[in-house]
Design a protein that fits this description.
single chain; alpha/beta; 5-stranded mixed beta sheet; about 40% helix; Gamma-glutamyl kinase; P-loop_NTPase
């Protein structure tokens, strides 16, 4: 997480949703406690339980939260590419030697093998397990809206650069058998529905 006192915001970094680029952009404006820096992908529930009360007392107000959501299948593709990298070969989290379809099949397994345990965005953002949800959720496909929002809250010009983009393995495609895609969408129906709400306008405010 990043604490942005000037903006009265806390940014929660959704995995595989431009988090490194956004953290780099916001770094000069962040005043994050050292202990919190050990958890770069802190989710909404953990933030609400462990950090929100502390920050409200320290800052004298309860900051809002903001985060990014990515189309669920695109996020899965990004995870697959990321875990294909050479540095992970031989590690239990590696997807080296697997097809994307095998990765998705493993994600649906119970229990999931370590390489397919990548979490759900609706849970990360606080829309499952009693929340509370992130205040401001932005669409990964429309990050200009996030940048404009943050510029307004920080009263400063911002520029978002691309970082940590995992390449597509040679010869790999993301085509899935129709039955497998249907199963994935059914299992993640709430996540897809949430993304539709976010993508409709590029931005979802959950609380006034």
């Amino acid at each position: 997480m990043l604490v942005l006192p000037t903006a009265r915001l806390v940014f929660l970094a959704t995995p595989k949703a431009a988090s490194q680029a956004i953290r780099a952009m916001l770094g000069p404006y962040a005043e994050t406690p050292e202990t919190a820096r050990q958890f770069p992908h802190m989710n909404a529930a953990t933030y609400a339980r462990r950090w929100a009360p502390f920050l409200a007392e320290t800052l004298g107000y309860a900051p809002e939260t903001c985060a990014v959501m990515r189309e669920p299948m695109e996020q899965m593709q990004s995870w697959f590419r990321y875990r294909q990298r050479e540095a992970l070969i031989g590690h239990q989290n590696s997807t080296h030697g697997l097809t994307f379809a095998e990765f998705v099949e493993a994600r649906l397994a119970d229990p999931q093998p370590p390489f397919a345990a990548v979490g759900r965005q609706d849970r990360f953002l606080g829309f499952l397990d009693d929340g509370p949800p992130v205040t401001h959720v932005f669409d990964y496909a429309q990050l200009d809206l996030l940048v404009a929002f943050l510029q307004g809250r920080l009263d400063a010009p911002l520029s978002l650069e691309s970082r940590n983009v995992s390449p597509l393995p040679e010869g790999e495609t993301f085509d899935l058998p129709a039955a497998l895609l249907k199963r994935f969408k059914k299992a993640h129906a709430a996540e897809f529905k949430l993304y539709e709400r976010v993508a409709a306008k590029g931005y979802l405010r959950t609380r006034s």
